[in-house]
Amino acid sequence: MRLTFQPLACIACDLCEVACSLRRDGVVTPMSSSIILHSEDKANYFGLVLKSRSEGVVLVRPEGVVSGQESSGGSGGPGAKPILLREPCDLCDGDPMCVRACPVRCISVED
Amino acid sequence: MRFMNGRYGVIDLASGESSEHELSEDAFRGPSSYLSAVGSAAREHAAGGLAVSSGLLTCSLTPAACAGFVLSPREGPAEERMCPLTGYIGTELKLSGFDFIVLAGESKVPGYIWIRDGILELVPSPAIVGSDSWKRTDTIRKDQGDKRIQVISVGPWGDSCLASSQLVMNYWGGEDAIGCAADFGRRSVAAFAVRGMGEIELEEPEEHFSRSLELRESHRAALGESTGLSSFTEKVAGEGFGALFHRKVACYGCPYPCRSYYKVFEDADVMALKIDEPGHLAYDIPAIDELLSIGLTAREVVLSLIACAKAGADPVSVARAVGDGGPQPSVEAIQAALASEKATDARGSAVEGGFTDAFANASDYVVCLALGLCPRYWARVGLNFGAISRVAEPATGSGMELR
User: Fold this and answer.
1) What is this structure's pTM?
2) Of A12, B64, B71, B325, most Cβ neighbours within 10 A?
3) Is the dihedral of CA B185, B138, A78, A8 positive or negative?
């Protein structure tokens, strides 16, 4: 089972990140999620960064999805906790909250 | 009450000293009591204190819980003193450790407010004044080393305390219909920057999550899928704007975005990051209406929105000034009006499609902002207090008096 993405469906609402923090710590925080929103807002360039157990860091960029990255390319800036220091996605024991939270079906599950 | 920090910050702009203050539980009984608490705190710490606030449900999973507001100290009813904050500014403020911030007095040296991790300070930055609003945001993000810092940027028009100035949210304008940027300019505050890296506790996280999804799905059934700004105004539904359309963008937690990014300096189909400033994120419906009405094309409208955002000027007022005689309206005429600071009247409330007049009833607008909910989204789906209360209760742990 793995998460799959349609990058251009993303609307940068950040609900996946918040849902992940709710699952991990029961709070809303940008510090603990395994998935984070990366945005260059002035250029309207945005996507997601996922720390996955099976595929390493997955970059969900507008021009395509790349997995197995060693660096995130989107840590959320040095002021935030870098993706490599976070816990990897555990797929919420089979019912990922980011998938449920996403309002535009950018994120889905594949067996 | 859960889901609030229970404290606010005050910065004395004259001395640069900041302080923290506890909020009583009474402040969180509902939107009216919360707004009253924000107003009282602003008055208590200084005559003419200016407040920047998140809302009671900002950052929750309640649909479109992105909003915050600036409360101007000027006279008048609440709806004429509130500037909505959309995007991510309200959420970052709540996660910074403060529910709201009071700006008291006036700074001797121009600078910007910088908030993170429960720290509130005034950063002297004389060089930033005079630069355009985009450069202010870029400078602050670069100096503080974080691209996710949210900036309420004051442009040159706000520095000059013009009635038709407009606050710019990072790079874009459309929320400030009351010339609130002048309130910052009078205090020599060039920008307000915030980064939230804290946490907000909920009473029952899973229940809040489930109920928010139920409510959102009921909205989705009624709304369908958003096409961006064209879902809110037919004025951008034609070929002119269609050729410039890049992607729609949501504010925090919004399932039905009203924002469309239009590219004017590269092909709209380019998805890779090639240039830093390819276009503009548009959501200011009255501004687009007004710029089109003076005869500008879609591309000229977007270029004019960029110019007005950089100046921190209200495009509605500028378009009216250009349209009222003088040379043929054009981007050059808009730029000339911006350079000469021509346009003296604020847009007022008599324009349709803005945030202020989202509801027929002004009190709904005020309640919506105090709750931290986007007026444009909630006007579209209907402000159902019973439904909001059902979603909010597992987050806050207590019922609220929503009326």
Assistant:
1) 0.96
2) B64
3) positive
